[in-house]
Specification:
The protein is α+β, with helices and mostly antiparallel strands. The protein has eight helices and 15 strands.
């Protein structure tokens, strides 16, 4: 007969929680710098969150299997039996009932003492993904065995329930802690690169460092996959600041208010003519700045801001003609060779009668696009903000705003 051990008694939950968070920070710190900078923060955060979460076991009580065998039982310490010499073991033949309880989740969790526990924890043997209960005796009967099984299972379930509450607290902490740790390291790496780049000398080439991760104390059966990314040297990218991006969108919205106040001047205009009016307003705010960035044409309907030969803002003006038009326009934006974090916008003019239906179609179409990643804060009834991935690289992200406007419709006489 194999000896059972006390469950939920090897390590405190508080130590496990502290260990998981510390190992997450070590894993982020150990990641090769270029790999970290070339990977989407969202995808990287999701990876580390999953890696350091703990899956508390769930007992599959409906799949319990019971076996029976004869066994030798040492009764030398049994005071109920008349044994005159207890200085050495004295065995008699008895019965052992072995109860197998399959479970899902992490077996190592059975070693963790939850924040609420008993001084006499349940005993069992952990064998792979099966808990083994051993019930032995010389006069066992079905009722006694069934009662002992139920009592032990119930006690294990109580401990697991508390562990699930504990794990939920850890899982609530992980998103903010992980993102904060990644962002902090990114800022440090970028500051170091900008420092060296500002010296004016060549940077020394060095072989790629091997990326290593320290396994957590409580290991997962299936490890998450690290998001794919190249490890080529990372170069800080020219980007449009959030403040400038918001200002550009504000100028676009103000221009629509002008159209609403003077509808007769715009009622007969086509896309190119309306776009020209937007360009006049935008260049009035940005042309001649120290950066030399200016709004210009680039193709039939593009409104562009360029820096270092790259597009850092792209706007597309379109009259609404249905969901396919929006999908094609988003595909067009994603098709540009652009830096990650490029800000883009689609300006949609509606001359149909049912503007509410158009707004619903915009939201549904954008969210079902294959490159859609998440909705961003700041959306309104007519302004939709999203994060999209580049068509060839999930780690290259575009911040897309879709602005929808009802414009004057020509009247027929």
């Amino acid at each position: 007969m194999r000896d059972s051990e006390y469950l939920f008694s090897k390590i405190s939950w508080f130590d496990v929680e502290r260990h998981q968070l510390e190992e997450m920070r070590k894993a982020v710190a150990a990641m090769e710098g270029n790999r970290l900078l070339n990977t989407s923060v969202d995808d990287l955060a999701a990876y580390f969150e999953q890696k350091f979460q703990i899956e508390i076991p769930s007992l599959l009580t409906e799949e319990i299997i019971v076996d029976q065998r004869e066994t030798k039982i040492d009764v030398s310490r049994d005071h109920n039996r008349m044994i005159f010499d207890r200085s050495s073991p004295f065995h008699i033949t008895g019965t052992e009932i072995e109860v197998e309880i399959p479970f899902t989740g992490e077996a190592e969790a059975f070693k963790v003492q939850p924040t609420s526990f008993t001084m006499n924890p349940p005993r069992a043997e952990v064998r792979g993904n099966v808990l083994i209960l051993h019930i032995v005796g010389t006069d066992l009967n079905a009722d006694r065995v069934r009662t002992e099984i139920n009592q032990t299972v119930n006690e294990i379930q109580r401990h697991l329930t508390t562990l699930r509450v504990n794990a939920a607290g850890l899982h609530t902490q992980l998103p903010n802690q992980t993102r904060s740790t990644i962002e902090s390291r990114r800022q440090k790496l970028l500051a170091d690169r900008n420092l060296v780049g500002g010296l004016g000398f060549k940077m020394k080439a060095r072989p790629e460092s091997q990326q290593t991760f320290v396994a957590p104390e409580v290991r997962k059966k299936i490890a998450p996959s690290l998001p794919s990314a190249n490890s080529s040297p990372y170069k800080p990218e020219p980007t449009l600041s959030n403040a400038d991006y918001e200002h550009i969108l504000g100028v676009l919205q103000n221009m629509v208010e002008v159209m609403e106040l003077s509808p007769s001047a715009f009622v007969a205009m086509d896309e190119e003519s309306i776009r020209s009016h937007f360009l006049v307003q935008l260049n009035g705010h940005y042309e001649g700045q120290a950066t030399g960035e200016t709004f210009n044409y680039g193709g039939k309907t593009d409104i562009l801001v360029r820096s270092e030969g790259r597009n850092i803002f792209i706007g597309e003006c379109k009259f609404w003609s249905g969901p396919k038009m929006l999908t094609d326009t988003i595909d067009q934006l994603l098709g540009y060779t652009s830096w990650r974090d490029t800000k883009v916008a689609v300006i949609i003019f509606n001359r149909n009668k049912d503007f509410s239906r158009v707004l619903t179609a915009i939201s549904e179409t954008a969210k079902t696009h294959t490159n859609f990643k998440r909705e961003l804060a700041g959306s309104t009834e007519t302004v939709f903000r999203y994060c999209f991935s580049h068509k060839d690289d999930r780690n290259r992200e575009l911040f897309l705003s879709i602005l929808a406007f009802d414009v004057p419709q020509a009247t027929t006489h």
